[in-house]
Amino acid sequence: MPKLRILEVASEVAPYARTGGLGDVLGALPKALAALGHEVKVCLPHYGFLKQQDRLTPLDWSSSAPAGETKAALRVSSVRDSRRRIEHLFIGNEDLFSRPDFYRDPSTEEDYPDNDDRFAFFCRAVLETVKQLDWRPDIIHVHDWQAGLIPAYLKTIYAADRFFADTRTVLTVHNLGYQGLFAGDRYPRLGLPEKLFYAMTGPFEFFGKVNFLKGAIRLADKLTTVSPRYAEEIQSGEEFGCGLQGVLKERATDLVGILNGVDYTVWSPSRDKLIPHRYTIPNLSGKRESKIELLRSAGLPIRESAPLIGMITRLTDQKGLDLVEAISEKLLAMNIQFVVLGTGDEKYHELFTSLESEFPDKVKVYLGFDDTMAHRIEAAADIFLMPSRWEPCGLNQMYSLKYGTVPVVRATGGLANTVDDYDFNTGTGTGFVFEKYEPEALLEAIQRAVKLFARKRTWMSLMKAGMKQDFSWTTSARQYSSLFKDLSARE
């Protein structure tokens, strides 16, 4: 079987544009696929804040693509990595993407009302771009709702276009909680046949609204999610399926869970350029020094006997912050220190600001996102907290394992696939896991971790067990490669 031409399409790609795990995945997976010999191109919007990137080379052609009821100018820029056989294509339109945020208006804290127009344009523009380049993809791998119209366009508007005759689509759902919902009367703006919405079983109709992700689930050739456990959970009921569990169960034979990987060229304490002191399993002194330095910069006292608990998260209910709030008084009565980095719901901004004020010797809060600080917390913390209500995959628990920062997680999604609960009798495990989504269950898991932290030699063994885990992209990329080859129309 010849190597494939793979087109990756997403709204976020590290290092250019990212708000979290989606961007990290799209920064790493294409490199891993290229390392297997495939030819890979990656498409993302040309956001306004990328204008100053000197490496972006405008292509010497321009075109247009539909955006709502009109056509919008299309300009494409490129960054080529010939060594890795990867090219990044930045799909641009001044009015649609030169804005201060990816998806939301910072002045109103509401989604941009024309997000449907913006990402419909993006999907059509991606297809027009590869045609203009005369680069026929074997696989178009679309990620989340923002790229979710591509399978529909290929099966309708481009159905008779011989250019895409052998192209197949794969949708990866990174988080089913974000679906791309819009008012039903805006459906005609997408340029798709009426039957895909107005028919009894219309792929895009969802309780009278347009649902980009539902349409993608119904129309993509194959589906993946970002962990095996999450693939099971999203078919099980409303809690995880978010209203789409029935559609997913209909496509169960086409759905597979492939665990996200970690880019250890970026996230490894032995080579991390963003932490003050690097370290390895044979010599962990750099971790202790990193902890001391973070405590000093945070204005917290240095207490060798107190474990430092770190959280790097969106401050939302989904991430288990309601559980943290419920146990906060008992938690901070313990001999611990707590550092939080994140932004999200105002109620949690107020909660952590209040805790920082009440416990200035135990709590430090950084509201916002800072990539350098995220690396420093991973390196400095003793314990990492991820009590998520649901977690499709999660990356921070895998980062934490590599950094010797013992994770405390709920047994859901990718957290259940990557962290093994510590057994005090056998000494096996890589972290602390709780099952029930209840405050008492979270508190008990933290108490077990703090208890073991006092046994320094045993704790050191637990740290090293985590650091030896390998969640690199190699295995996951091979799974994607196998899926793509099986799906490909090429002989």
Describe the SSE topology.
Layout: E1 5-9, H1 21-35, E2 39-45, E3 57-67, E4 70-81, E5 86-92, H2 94-97, E6 104-105, E7 110-111, H3 115-133, E8 139-143, H4 150-155, E9 168-173, E10 181-183, H5 195-198, E11 205-206, E12 209-211, H6 212-219, E13 222-225, H7 228-233, H8 238-241, H9 245-250, E14 255-257, H10 285-298, E15 308-315, H11 321-332, E16 337-344, H12 346-358, E17 363-367, H13 371-380, E18 383-386, H14 396-402, E19 406-410, H15 413-418, E20 432-434, H16 439-453, H17 456-467, H18 473-487
Parallel strand pairs: 1-2, 1-8, 2-5, 8-9, 9-13, 13-14, 15-16, 15-18, 16-17, 18-19, 19-20
Antiparallel strand pairs: 3-4, 4-5, 6-7, 10-12, 11-12
Helix pairs in contact: 1-18, 10-13, 11-16
Q: Count helical runs.
A: 18
Mean pLDDT over the residues: 94
Major pleated sheet: 9 strands, mixed
- Amount of helix: 25-40%
Spatially, the strands of the biggest sheet line up as 3-4-5-2-1-8-9-13-14
Strand-residue proportion: 15-25%
Distance between the termini: 7 Å
Instruction: Give me the count of strands.
Output: 20
Quickly give the structural class.
alpha/beta
Task: Please state the CA-atom Rg, rounded to the nearest Å.
Answer: 23 Å
| Low confidence ranges | none
The coarse overall form would be globular
Can you walk me through this structure?
- This protein has 491 residues and is of the alpha/beta class.
- Helices cover 36% and strands 21% of the residues.
- The protein has 18 helices and 20 strands.
- The chain has a 9-stranded mixed sheet, sandwiched between helices.
- Helix 11 (321-332) crosses helix 16 (439-453).
- It starts with a strand and ends with a helix.
